[in-house]
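Practice set, problem 2.
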Amino acid sequence: MSRKTTSTLHEAASTSPANVEDHFDSLNSDLDVLSTPGSQDSTPIPVIAVAEELEHEEVIDTSKETRRLLLNYDEFHDAIKHGDFDSVKEMLDDGANIERTTDNGGTPLIIAIYKHHIDIIALLLKRGADVNWPVIDSPPIFHAVTQKEHAPQIIQLLLDYGGMLEAVAGPTHMNALHWAAVNGMIHAADFLISKGLDISRTCSRGKTPLIHAAEKGHLTIVKLLLAKGADLHGRSANDGSALMWASSQAQDEVVDYLLNEGSRVDDCDEDGLTALSVSSKLGSMAIVQLLIEKGANVNTLSTSPKHWTPAMFAANAGRAGVLQALLSHGADPKVSSGDGVTILELAIKSGHLNTVKILLEALGGPEYPKDSVALQIAIAQSKATVTSLMTTVPIMYGYIDSKPTGSEKLDWIKWVLDQGGELVKAGAMTNMLHAALAHQDVSMTAELLKLGVDANTIFCTGNTPLHIAVYVRNLELIKLLLEAGADPAKPSQDPKGLKLTPLHEAIIDWKDGCVNAMSVIDLLLRSRRCRIMEGENAQSTAFACVVRKLNHWNDKVVLEADEIVRSMLGWTDDRSDDGSTPMHVAVHYKQKGLIDALRRVGADINAKNNNGHSPLLVASRSDVEMVNFLITRCADVSAVNNHGQGALQIAAACGQVEVLEFLLGSDLADEAPLNIDAVDDAGHTPLIAAILTNHEGAALYLLERGASTHYRTSDTGRCAMHLAAQANMQRTVEKILEDSSIDNINVEDYRRYTPLTLACIYSAPAVISKLLSHGADPNIANDTTGDRPLHIALKRRSRMSPMDARHGDPALDLLNYHRIDITARDADGRTPLHLASEFHNFAATKLLLSKGVSPHYEDNRGRTPLCLCSRPDIAQALIDHGADVNHGDENGWTPLHYAVSRCWVKAFAVLRRARANMDARTRDDGLSVKERLERFGTWEDWVNAEWEYICDDVRREKMREVEMEDEL
């Protein structure tokens, strides 16, 4: 399809009435068989067939059309580029498509604009070029804006021919003045302001033209806008001012000008960042100096990151010059962030030597050592660098220290740290510890711990020292770290989001044959400082990892797991993030022996997690044997969760018929019998819970046991009959209908939907037949929408799944019902015949016509069924029954106008054979059918556009169905 097709089909669509909706079942079903000779297949009518049909009817001027088809559009575009007015005019006279695009999408009008050919621009506009059609997502006025001194004249021409001054474009919905500001187009900006464009208008990101100009560094535009009254202090969506945006892009000239004009130097955005914060991070020395001179607060604190000063941003980014300037003007070198990290620590972790040296001097004085080995180790960004330094230093130390030394001596570590001073000691020790652990150097680790390294430090990998020791399964290192205070319950801070404790790591790594794996776990547990339930939920905890191995195929692993579990029994009060206890884990994995073991050490068998689920409620989801076991262990059978759901509701919602049978049929000793109609906070009984989750077996069992069908849900007011009809549960509906106490089959929910209406909405033909046979009224109109069940059935897709199709078509079932009103109108005045035509139901159309329904009925807008018909077989059936092919609606739109505007190629051919008038004009836009066709370009363009319109109709149909179901 040519690019022209896209533009013209949208243009044509824009001229059709806004409420015309053509809904298609699917892409394939909309290429239905055309009921004419020679086209009895499922393919679109060939272009040549349409052309021959039209030529036969003398619809077009063949000679002019031939000339148009023979045009060389490369020559046409070249003539425009070179300003050949006469050639352009001649080709337009010969029928050249005025919107025909080049290979890169440029229209003739856009080409003329970029070449500044004013006379050709005027000619194209006079001949009907679309003055607002976007090219590269921007309307012509945007392209005109960038034409420098030519912009005012071109913009004025576009406006004279209907160009939209307020047009917006792009993902941020900028207008022409925003675009001029972004591109620094002073001529266009001045002209647009003179034409009345609001200088305070914002784009979707909240940026004014002034902010755009400041951000891009266009000082002349900034001056113009301020001279015209732009708000100097206006804010964007993130609360940034023009000064901040200029600072963020290092536009020093603009920053200087804005400051001199009175911009507030300490305004901050939603993250608490000021212009000084931003420029410090970027390293914009000139702007930093300007801001400081204007009194910017050098110790202002951001909110995200929490409590960062401009000096912190500079240090973290390695902006040494900026950092020096800030410190010399009073920036506090000792301040800490909200996470307790100092400026020096930020600089060291980032590995920026120059900024570290500046901070060392600021904190320790000019004599503080700034070239030490300790400093090099502290700022090293890799273990390889640290290892290299640590390998070299002992050799060097042997020559410096007069005492004899050997490889077993570690005095050099203290010497290195002392040489670096206290300010870099922590950073150096952290990196040295990381390297020592990686090489499993127990002696060096012990020495570093003795010298004061933090045993719970977080390395750049997000792991603690204990994580590394556990990973390499080095018992000496683990014991050493635990004795030094390492926390075995501290989770890692993995950048990928995983947060595992050392115990978790040990259990995950534990497998049959792993050396020291069991010993590592035992060592961690014996510290008595572990958390066995650390994790998001019961299944993600270390305890669950071990319990899962109780079902392992390897007997040795099972024995080891049992041993570990026994050693974990002392943590019965530990909970996961969702409040689950070890008892919940034992129930989830069906470990009866573990449940008894936990009870013996005092675990609460009725403990609830954060959602209020007790172990019994957890078991009710899946395991009748576990439910029975828990009840024998004094579990509270009447417990409910935070939503008021008890064991019956949960079992029903999970389809657990055996659990329901046990709970309703067992003698629960001192417990009162469970209420089969217990209602939760949402008004759901166990029966409603089973139906809502589509567990028909559970629903039928509850009905057999006498569950009431009269309870209603709190939100929609639907009872079991509504919900079963909606879910297409035929057997459940039959069972409910057997109940002699059902006194009103037409009961309405809060939205005034009856069970029959819901069955039509959800295309449940078997349920519809059953409801009708028991006396459901098909003529009840919804007070809100005006729709009756028949209207809804006809608006649904006529094609169903093979399983549903076995039970018939809901619309046909209703039409064959003796009490149905086949001429009832919906809120838009459409009869069932209108809807059958519009929604492609050929069988329903034939049935309605056979019952004598008139094809001349008009809806509220004067449209007959033929106006809404896209399928050729339906169109032919309507015409065969006397439909007027030239009937005009309230705006004079005939069926042929609708067919052309929506590219109903096959329906168009049927209408033309029936002598539909091509010269009929509408009253709203005054176009004839021929003229509407010409808006698509060539005949080939129009025919080829059919598929895109079908896709568009299918998308809209799907959206309509989703919206209807979401509403319900």
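Problem 2, part (b): a different protein.
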Amino acid sequence: MSAKTTPGPRQAASVFRADDDYSDDDGFTVGSDLDDFIPESSHETPTLVSTVVEGTKQEEGMNLARDDRDLRLNYDNPHHARKCRDLDSAKEELDDSVNVDLIAYEKDWALADSIRKRHIDNIALLLERGADANFQITGLPLIFHAVKQKEHAPQIIQLLLDHGADLEATSGPTDATGNDDINALHWAAGKGMIHAADFLISKGVDISKPCSSGKTPLILAAERGHLEVVKLLLAKGAGLHERYANGGSALMWAASQGQLEVVDYLLNQGSRVDDCSEDGLTCLSIASMSGHLAIVELLIKKGANINARSISPEDWTPAVFAADEGHTEVLQALLSHGADTNVLTSDGDTILELAMEKGHLTTAKVLLEAVGGPGYPKDSVALQIATAQSETTVKSIMNTVSIMYRYVDSRSTGSEWQGWIPWVLDQGGKLVRSQAMINMLRAALAYEDTEITAQLLKLGADPSMVFSTGYTPLTIANSKHNLKLIETLLEAGADPAKLSKDATGCELTPLHQAIIGWEYGQKKGTSVVKMLLASGRCRIMDGQNAQSSAFARVVRKFDSCDDEIVLEAADIARQMLDFTNVNEDRSEDGSTLMHVAVYYKQKGLIDQLRRVGANVNAKDNDGHTPFLIACKSNVELVNFLATRCVDVSDTNNRGYGALQIAAAHGKIEVIEFLLGLNVDDEEPLMDINSCDPAGYTPFIVAILAGNEDAALYLLERGAYPSSFTHDNGRCALHYAAGKSMLRVLEKILPRRSMGGIDRQDNKGYTPLALACMAPSPTSVSLLLSLFSYQPGVDINIVNPITGDSALHIALKRPLHMSPMDARYGHPALDLLHYIYTDITVRDANGRTPLHLAAEFHNFSAAKLLLSRGVSLHCEDKKGRTPLCLCSNPEIAQALITHGADVNHGDEDGWTPLHYAVSRCWVKTFAVLRQAGASMETRTRDDGLSVKERLDKFGTWDDWVNAEIDYVCDDAQREKTREAEMEAEFE
């Protein structure tokens, strides 16, 4: 048996749980007295964009938010009248102009109160007087509250619909009650409101639409046990086999919640008894896991497969689920109908072993009788130990038994007193022995009882088992720093290379854990490490990479300031070399001991490893030799290795040689040394223009890595700047422009051999375009200054893939990409000041530079374009002018000042004001209104006027407050553009 804890069924099938937000009470969500929930109005004055906005609100008659009113609430008249159902008084108060503001504020809450009390006349009156049919309380629209009014629900819902209520309104993903984006039919089904459900279906609500969590109305009704609603939904066409997001059907959900009547009905209607969820769970598995005995018996009667195996957890049967949860009666029912007691889980555990490990004593007794027969001992001390859930409990039982055993066997004296251990194990029989032994060993280790540990190991306890905590016996002994205990385990064959989890959940070997203890000065730390190493079975390179290995932790201490620690580290390292294969022991990334020695620059250790046969040219999984790793470091180490018979011409898996790696890390001294290895009269060892299979030379690699000094040094030594990389068709000029390496550009631009500087790469980008995309676009002005020296060069060349010129790219550039922009100027302005730049060229969407300046809120570029007389009325492919795309109020004002048409409509009739409202451009809206933009213009696609589009947001303050969401959305899109641009240089 594995001592590991198998994941419980709750973890694997936790999705089969009811939603807590569906309580079955008939009360209203907000409480019995709505008066307590009507807040007083505020005297605070709302912050307005300008007086233009205030004028707009008054002119268009928009509903003001509560905070805009100065009147204090007075409940004495209209609210009391409606509360008492005095319709005449209520009408009189509702029509009283003195109380208009009061009623506008209070009527929505009064409507909710009337719905709760089912006062139909009041509901109709309030709706006629303008109460909001879509008002929400605690995140639920009023139509949800109407659903709960039983036989009155259809009439109330119809009144709400007649006055504009949204039939498809949802609770939203994060409303106050925790509901998960459900509609009114979901709500009715979950609450068992059959009248409302029937009415909503008749109104066309989709009967099978899942909510955002994946549940359909049928599933919601089934899991809550609302049989009549289940019958209705099926009669109206709901699919009997509809599935939840995890593959669970209505039958499975009803079974999980113990809804016997619903389960019986669904089975009689044709639900398949052995249908499975995505995890391979059948209804019988789910009911067994949940402990619903009556449903288990019904499913068995209906022919359910009693030994169906799940996918996750792997190979669990209904009996395994029942035993794991301790549902004894369910297990007995399954066993009485032939459940297999010999089934093994994927971890190799039996049903009995799971029950004992989880501490289910009664369940274990049932299984002992089923597996071992009626006469099998079920009241043994061994079983108590096997089901105990703590070392303290086990230790207490063992102490008691050891004392009592002396009265059982008078010979148990002196060295023979441990005879009680086999006696206890024998009393429990072979079915209990293994789990009892596991728990006894855990307790003995926890209390550092070497004698009991040794006795258990002699009796067959596995010294390398992994306990349910993730620890091995050696792990526990290590943590106790108990040398005798460690020695006992090692002599019994404990594996010191077996991984176990530490307190943080990391998987480490006992040796690694012991070395960490030694590092932190734990008592006997060195002795523990040496004892483990002496076993000859340790893996000193176990770990993800060279730096995370146990060997690396020791080597790091070679540079300690404490001489004693240095001596201890050297001693441990020597012993490590004595007990390991220096070439075969590797970390997960393929690093050897030699890689570790080079990584930490330990020349003495390098020579020591060579003397014991370590391969100085060994490669890790990425093809890096120790010499290539040294090229990232310093010239002394490179020189040292070069004299130790290393192969200096080796390359890694990408094809990078020593020069590329040194260039990538900016190691000029290493580059100089490597080039110095060449002898005049021999074939050069180091080719300065060597390239990997993709065409990356050391020069290009240095540029890509941002090492300008290294790139300049390579140029001086003869690096060829005009070679192209094969994967993207770029030359050094492309890379240098994208990295804004001005000194490199100044060196390579005058060279006639490199061709036109408007050459496009495989993606259609020129060096100038890449310069405009650079995080710090400082090379744009330099490139422009040199264009005049290149006859025939076209700076307006358009990317055939994206349709953008360099100017388009510069204008689409996020303004916040780098603080360097403010210092060196924006590339768009550099281009606009250049005499040969085409300021009318259009992008793939037909947008001009002015469109882009307006859309991407580049005020400086917009002013410059306007000063040069560009057209304000150019339309893109959708008929939009620059003003339609403008979110910046300053740019909008500038466009209007120069004659932009504030009422221009695009191909769908959308005016700039429509766009401002839809995107919550509050300040731009004010500018447009001040310039005379019409609120009545209707679009051709959805037929809305600006005012109607504004009203869809609710109150004025609702619209203003929504601006932050759109600002965040715009910021996210800008970050995405920034990431896309920066990705071109990775």
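Answer key, part (b): The domain at 839-983 is CATH 1.25.40.20 (Serine Threonine Protein Phosphatase 5, Tetratricopeptide repeat). The CA atoms of residues 154 and 199 lie 6 Å apart.
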